[in-house]
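Hey forum,

I'm writing up a methods section and want to include a predicted complex as supplementary material. The small molecule is zinc ion. I've pasted the protein sequence and the SMILES. Can someone with a working setup run it? I'll credit the forum in the acknowledgements.
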Amino acid sequence: MAVDGLAGDHAHPTLTDAIFLDIVALDAVEADADAALEQLLVEERALGIVAEPVGRSIGHGGFIVGVPSDKRSIAAIQRGTMTDAHSYHFVEALTRRDLTAIRACPKSDLHTHGYLAANRDFVNVRTGHDIAPLTVPLASMDDMHAWVGTHVRPVFEGAAGRLLGFEAAFIQARHDGLTRLELGDDVWAITRGMGTAEELYHSIAELHRATAPDVEWIPQASMSRHCTIAALDNWLAPFLQLNLYKTIDLSGDEFAQPIENFVPLYRKAAAAGFRLKAHVGEWGTADDVWRAVELLELDEVQHGIAAAASPVVMRMLADHHIRLNICPTSNLMLGRVESIAAHPIRKLFDAGVRVTVNTDDVLVFGASVSDEFLALYDAGVFTAAELDTIRLNGLRD
Ligand SMILES: [Zn+2]
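Reply by user p_vandermeer:
Happy to help. Structure tokens for the complex are below, copy them as they are.
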């Protein structure tokens, strides 16, 4: 939904209502979609349609590869190769290129960054600032940080601004039909007027309850790679003690300091029961990916696309069930891939690596999770059934 022509600090309440009405409508679409799917399955069974063989199954409990047609994709779903209650509908929605119906299917976003996950229209209504996403690729992370500094950060200044960003992120999750959202702030936020680690958690939790209580929220504590280890250790400690946050991430310039430096922090996070993640292999190499996984004992990698250059690293990622949370449009707009069609996510998938599709920064790149799935389908990277497998990869750990 687009809300155009707003300016000033106080949006008209009718337009704010329009956002929420849109979300209510989304719920109705989801209910209708479930009913339609059920009806379709009943009819298919009554007609006695027999599924065709759909190619070979490899790894991961039943990937279907080399499936040439969507009829066959749907047949795979009918055969129960890999499904949930929404699989048939998701495949159908993709083949019809029906974005509203894609949104109505459960999905996850496991790779995003605080207010950069915000819903553009909601932010526009609440602040009068319309943050238009990037339209041409940038050349570096420095360019990206400069762009965010100019176009995004000023809109979310101060504690109130940051919290508005989290509210807008939950709004975006509902708007796009996400049922799982990993979201958090940098640990240094506790030095930026956001209160203690516990207060920060409860501030975000309150927004979650008020805005998107049906979305599973996975609270994340993230660290910036350019910070000193001593400072990170100090800021991270209260997050680890609370038993509220679930995952830890490391982002920023991949080359800011050696990955070895972070080992003590990750050992503490592991001892506290955190799920361990880090950004690596977006700008670095396949070896960098594996080195980070080994040294930090990662459960998941944010990006990790460089691994596609090494069959050995891909094999190790697959064997150790390391999930890669990939953001295709981000990779395209930061010049890490030439096109969506040429994205290495296909190679990783074929090697048996467990991949998911995510936004990174929907406010910067303009692509929701649903948009990402449709883009991969339209570019011929995956069949609809393969994309359903990828959707399911994000719905469980
Ligand atoms: Zn990221």
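Some notes you might quote in the supplement: The radius of gyration is 21 Å. The first helix runs from residue 13 to 47.
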